Amino acid sequence: MRKHTRRVLATSHIAGQLDLLDRLVETASELDVDSVMIVGDLVGTGGVHRADAYREVFGKLGALRVPTFFVPGAHDAPLDDYLREAYNLELTFPMLHGVHGTLAFAPGHVAVLGMGGEIGQTGGREERERLYYPEWAVEYVLKVLDELKDYEKIFLFATPPAHKDWDGGSQAITTLINTFAPTLVVVDAPRRHHAEVGTSLVVAPGRLSEGDFSIVDLRRRKIEAGNVR
User: Fold this and answer.
1) Is the Cα torsion angle 64, 157, 118, 126 positive or negative in sign?
2) Which terminus of the chain, N or C, has fewer Cβ atoms within 10 Å?
3) Which domain covers residue 81, as residue numbers?
4) What is the mean pLDDT of residues 42-63?
């Protein structure tokens, strides 16, 4: 494993597609990546017991053998099940890092922070039927950013920023990006896309439920599209 984070494999919306996740794990081992970033719905919405579904997904992610960071999507509710299984599997696989409302560190003095679920302008927190957070809650949870001025930063969000290229984006995320200038922001969106927001590279890497992922070279600021089908 490199001492610096340069090549990142990013994807979103696993949605319980375990066969495609197995292929991603196999592909990642051949691509010489330093870390893996995953945003959006991890498990499907079918009748599988939620705790069992999380356990399967996290167990497969543990086979990646590189630092792996993730946040849940709006359908990864209730939050209690998600957090319990994420914690248990992180103890088993030390390279797994859930960063929903918190942070973890990648090689090379890089702080990875994130917030999962849908982020909107109105209403209160919802964590039973779906994961939904008002923008003020995101700003409050991520106030730790004030203490990370000396770190390179990567943000993970299941909601894109407010931007002309994305529908339904969050202005709070745009403000965080413009204020703290992360090198990379990985978001979930229906189509693969990337844009510059301020000095930050914002990437919707494609959805694994459709076989898609992207490789992001942080130093060259280049993106390669991939598919595991």
Assistant:
1) positive
2) C
3) 7-227
4) 86
Q: Which of 184, 219, 178 is nearest to 204 (CA)?
A: 184
Considering the domain boundaries, does residue 135 fall inside one? yes
* Angle (CA) 211 2 194, round 5°: 40
pLDDT band (50, 70, 90) for residue 18 = very high
Measured at the alpha carbon of residue 5, what is the angle toward residues 113 and 143, in degrees to the nearest 5?
A: 20
| CATH code of 81's domain | 3.60.21.10
CA gap 35, 68 in Å, rounded: 6
Average pLDDT, the chain: 93
User: Could you tell me if residue 1 is inside a domain?
Assistant: no
Domain count, the chain: 1
Residues in the chain: 229
- Overall average pLDDT of the 8-14 stretch: 98
